[in-house]
Amino acid sequence: MDKRFLLSIHKWLGLIAGIFILIMGLTGSILVFDDEIEHFIQRDVIYEPDSDLPVSLDNAYSSIIQKHPNWDVRLTVIPEKADRAIEAEIRRPDTRRYLYLHPVTGEILRDLNRESTFSYWMLKLHYQLHSGFIGEVILLISGLMFICSLITGFWFYRKAIKKVLTFKIRPRFRNLQSTSSELHRTVGVWALIFNLITAITGVVIMLIIVQTHIKSDDGSAPLPDPPAIEASLDKVIETVQESYPSFDPSYVRMPAQPDRQITLYGHMESDLPIHYEFSNYVQFDPKTGTESNAFFIQNQPVTTHLLSFTYPLHFGDWGGIIIKILYCLFGLAPALLSITGFIIWRKREQKKRELKNRKHYKPSLPGTNRNKKEKETTLP
After folding, report:
1. Compositionally biased, Basic residues: which spans (predicted)?
2. What sections of the chain are H helices per DSSP?
3. Comparing C-alpha atoms, which of 228, 193, 177 is closest to residue 341?
């Protein structure tokens, strides 16, 4: 393949998608710690005095439906002990709210519009540039272009990969152009696998988001019409833990329509760390509290496992604080590649213009008419 043609493709892909890659890289590095940041902001209500009384999801749900009837209710954080708040998210087609509830009494401690939270603002910028469906499509296209840019960059630098990884190529930071070039090559090589993983998983997530947006715009999302819940949520939790001791329920979705079930999502001990934490679920009848259905990722085909890996691999929600720190640092790589790539392009364009100006400039020789005229105009 022609080297100049490949470099041209790599250059234009990077330039066109560069600003969006920059935004996605910076916001992605921050979103690795979105839970920690949000919990720090809301720390005055999240962490409650320890209590020997049991956590009560029934009290929490009762408080929610009294204040917000006819909402799609999801209990997103279920504490094991009554030392932190229960967290819930309630939805309607046009809005969402975050609730923090006392773990024992169920009292609503804080009720927030989701759009006012830091994590939602950052997620919206990361996923749609605060531009709705148009932003989602732009970022989807930019993600595809970034993948192509990584592939062409790999081909272009393929002979230098081993030398960079073994430090046989010594960086030369003489000026802005050489520094940008060295950083672009070094960061591109060292972060290649990470960038490919996050770019591919990001494109998959964006495809799901775009498809969901298209479906929701065709009127297929009805207003919530939840049925009366006669079953005890606390009893349901006890039942599922007795029936499936290795299942750890951490998310409860209440039925939003009369024909829906109570669904408990969670993680199994047999799952890999990179499985999505809500890959498994057990469903219960909202009236009787009896189990109606169960789904476990370990019994599913390989394609379902790969889809389950998507979100954790993209956001680093699978290996503790060390993995999150690494994701945060490596997440800056796309932004750095975007900036250094732009600088390299600008410097090359400047050199081309300078070379072109030199070719067009023809200095006058001594004794020519032009030289004489110039001398005459300078005489007093």
Report:
1. 352-362
2. 3-31, 34-41, 43-46, 57-67, 118-128, 132-157, 161-165, 176-190, 192-216, 233-243, 302-315, 320-330, 333-360, 369-378
3. 177
Edge-first strand order for the sheet with 108-113 is 108-113, 95-101, 86-92, 72-77, 247-253, 262-268, 280-284, 291-295
What is d(CA 336, CA 328) in angstroms, rounded to the nearest whole number? 13
Is position 84 within any domain? yes
Residues 235 and 309 reside in one and the same domain: yes
Q: Which residue has the tokens 């065709």?
A: 218
102 plus 147 within the same structural domain = no
Which pair of tokens denotes residue 190?
């060292």
Question: What gap in Å lies between CA 238 and CA 322, rounded to an integer?
Answer: 33
Domain boundary residue, one of 301, 321, 341: 321
Looking at the fold, whether 229 and 313 belong to one and the same domain comes out as yes
User: Residue 194: which pLDDT band, with cuts at 50, 70 and 90?
Assistant: very high
pLDDT tens per residue, range 315-368: 998 988 999 999 999 999 998 998 998 888 888 888 888 888 877 665 655 555
Same domain as 7, residue 73:
no
Q: Which two tokens mark 369?
A: 């008419």
> Are residues 282 and 329 located together in one domain of the fold?
no
Q: Please report the DSSP string for 39-62 in residue order.
A: HHHTHHHHB----SSPP-HHHHHH
